[in-house]
Specification:
alpha/beta; six-stranded mixed β-sheet; 49% helix; elongated
């Protein structure tokens, strides 16, 4: 049996970042830490990149080496104890791709999401029927069970918009996503009506880049920027492509995609203009 995979969480990322900081402040390389503690260098790398949560004895050895005292020591130990908490996890999620489950984990804990989509309605704003049609169309080799697992996961993800302190979502999509008849006219009409309903929520901002805008910075592909309430948790960029999924955490990458999102926001219709376009498209489908 393969070992149970570690699903990243915001707290696990924070713990990894703190251990990297402590090692750097101690002016030690990973090789130095291995020589002084006996901790395998590969294990240390996995701990410092949030691939695994360190065992308690490993963490104690590291904190002793870095001479960390209370109260900071107690805070790191408490953080480690909670690092694997997964309130969102469902039994069937183990069948989903690892990158997707990681994405769901981060999205659940995010304070805000900025999402640009070039070809699809943003995932958090999709109806169930639209999501099913998208998944079937983009994964033609997937069986019915696999499709339904992904549909259910996408439906459950929308809970972040309905909780007491909802996620702040700023979604931008190309006009092409509104005009493509995914699932047929009835499915698409209901999807557009759903956008009308949800876009008036105070924590949701929706904009569309019209065809008249011409070429724009988002044409190479979609991306998601996730921000977190705690300043110690840096933003993440998520890229989803046919070549695979990718998370970017380097400050230069986060800044670059933030600038790109601002550029797209400036080229897009205003939220009111977007609603007018959606209303027009719905009337054309009647």
């Amino acid at each position: 049996m393969p070992p149970k995979r570690q699903i990243p969480t915001v707290r696990l990322r924070r713990l990894a970042a703190e251990l990297r900081r402590l090692r750097n402040e101690s002016e030690l390389t990973r090789e130095d830490v291995t020589a002084r503690t006996g901790i395998n260098e590969a294990t240390l790398y996995r701990v410092e990149t949030a691939r695994v949560r360190p065992q308690r004895r490993t963490l104690i050895a590291l904190l002793d080496l870095y001479q960390l005292q209370d109260p900071q020591r107690g805070e790191v130990l408490a953080l480690s104890q909670r690092a694997n908490e997964q309130g969102w996890l469902r039994p069937y999620h183990s069948e989903l791709p690892e990158e997707y489950t990681a994405y769901i984990s981060f999205e659940t804990e995010a304070w805000e999401v900025r999402n640009y989509e070039s070809l699809f309605i943003p995932g958090l704003l999709q109806t169930e029927d639209y999501a099913r049609a998208v998944i079937r169309g983009t994964l033609p080799m997937a069986g019915s069970e696999a499709v339904e697992q992904r549909v259910q996961a996408r439906v459950e993800r929308k809970a972040v918009l309905a909780k007491s302190d909802p996620l702040r979502l700023w979604a931008i999509t190309d006009e092409a996503a509104l005009r493509r008849m995914v699932g047929g006219p009835m499915v698409m009409r209901e999807q557009l009506k759903h956008l009308e309903r949800v876009a008036v929520e105070p924590h949701v901002t929706l904009q569309v880049i019209p065809f008249s805008a011409g070429a724009h910075a988002g044409m190479p592909g979609s991306f998601v920027l996730m921000g977190f309430a705690d300043a110690e948790d840096p933003e993440i960029v998520y890229l989803d492509s046919m070549a695979g999924d990718l998370f970017l955490e380097a400050e230069i990458d986060v800044r670059r995609y933030g600038v790109m999102f601002d550029n797209l926001r400036a080229q897009a219709l205003s939220p009111d203009g977007t609603m007018s376009l959606i209303t027009t498209l719905i009337s054309e489908m009647q």
